[in-house]
Amino acid sequence: MRTISYEYLCFRPxxxxxxxKTGAEFPAKVIGQTGERLIIPDAQPEDGGEYTxxxxxxxxxxxxxxxxxxxxxxxxxxxxxxxxxVRKLSDVNLRCETNDQSDSxxxxxxxxxxxxxxxxxxxxxxxxxxxxxMPSDDGIYQCQVTNQHGSTLSTTQLKVKxxxxxxxxxxxxxxxxxxxxxxx
Length: 184
What we know:
single chain; mainly beta; Immunoglobulin-like; elongated
């Protein structure tokens, strides 16, 4: 991700200056909270809001506000797991989502757009249901989320197995033999 810095100038020449963010805690990464320049490196949407610069001299106090809106490509709040291993004939739910309901989603299987069928069902825009998976469903699944500022991609590799070990089989209890060896 590229680093974006926003810089605001306030009162020149500078008297005693300070910056605040209305209704929120000041981002820790901000540079210049008490100077004439406020710099927000790697600005993210959550850095947006109203910022106030207050200038004080021995004679007067003045303030100026600015509203910062940070725009960016979609930021995923739920991503696909990098690997998804499932048992043959089970149903698989893949989900990715952002906080913005205006984002659009496109699903891909092995780099080709998915056309929904009875077997591959899109559940809303942000979820894909694969019913009764078969070994032929092995492959790369991707969720591409787009807004007016760009797109973000989340990817999983789906592996279909004939059987998967049961969780209970992984945690086996054993009793010691008289010789000290474990017996299953």
